[in-house]
Amino acid sequence: GQNIDQPTEMTATEGAIVQINCTYQTSGFNGLFWYQQHAGEAPTFLSYNVLDGLEEKGRFSSFLSRSKGYSYLLLKELQMKDSASYLCAVIDSNYQLIWGAGTKLIIKP
Amino acid sequence: IAGITQAPTSQILAAGRRMTLRCTQDMRHNAMYWYRQDLGLGLRLIHYSNTAGTTGKGEVPDGYSVSRANTDDFPLTLASAVPSQTSVYFCASSDELAGYNEQFFGPGTRLTVL
């Protein structure tokens, strides 16, 4: 079966750095997304990785290792507004998106 | 309209009733999707449509049907609602002709079946 694993919940301090990990086992791989979802709202796109390495976009970076079936989302200079769930999703060989259950990130002052 | 809209925002429904959730996008995206999101389970695909006139089953299609008469609209119908269909429903769309299928989501419909 297809599986995406993320920690259920993480806590971090305002101004700090946090890394949210995602491991996947899917039938094929055609890319990986990270989405942000605030409570009661729709998911919104953060990043896309298809090649190994680090993609940086402002305070957020996303890393991919296809050989390890592993990705992480790195959030720097955390702000209270970063409190949200972060969803990892993989495009499989049929070009379907397989979603992880999400990581709820709690930011404390 | 800007992006994707869904209606209603929320609904309480008696079990056994028929319900249609509406979804409209104005981005001319060819692909559209319906998901349900339940606590601890993440997003699960119900049905999808790669282009107007075609639909496909996702991970959890039972009890739901869809149609795609045109590019913009993708309604989801619950023929006879059951309490296990209580969930938040998200409609999404993507441009399959783009390099990757980033999905854009509507605001969601919160459905409670009693």
Describe this structure in words.
- The complex is a heterodimer of chains A (109) and B (114).
- Chain A is mostly beta strands and 109 residues long.
- In chain A, 0% of the residues lie in helices and 57% in strands.
- Chain A has no helices and 11 strands.
- Chain A has strands spanning 3-5, 9-13, 18-25, 32-37, 44-49, 53-57, 60-65, 70-75, 84-91, 97-99, 103-108.
- In chain A, the strands form 2 sheets. In chain A, strands 2, 4, 5, 9, 10 and 11 form a 6-stranded mixed β-sheet that branches. A 5-stranded antiparallel β-sheet of chain A has the order 1-3-8-7-6, with no helix packed on it.
- Chain A is globular.
- The mean pLDDT of chain A is 95.
- Chain B has 114 residues and is mostly beta strands.
- Helices cover 0% and strands 47% of the residues of chain B.
- In chain B, the strands form 2 sheets. In chain B, strands 2, 4, 5, 6, 9, 10 and 11 form a 7-stranded mixed β-sheet that branches.
- In chain B, strand 4 and strand 5 (42-49) form a beta hairpin.
- The mean pLDDT of chain B is 93.
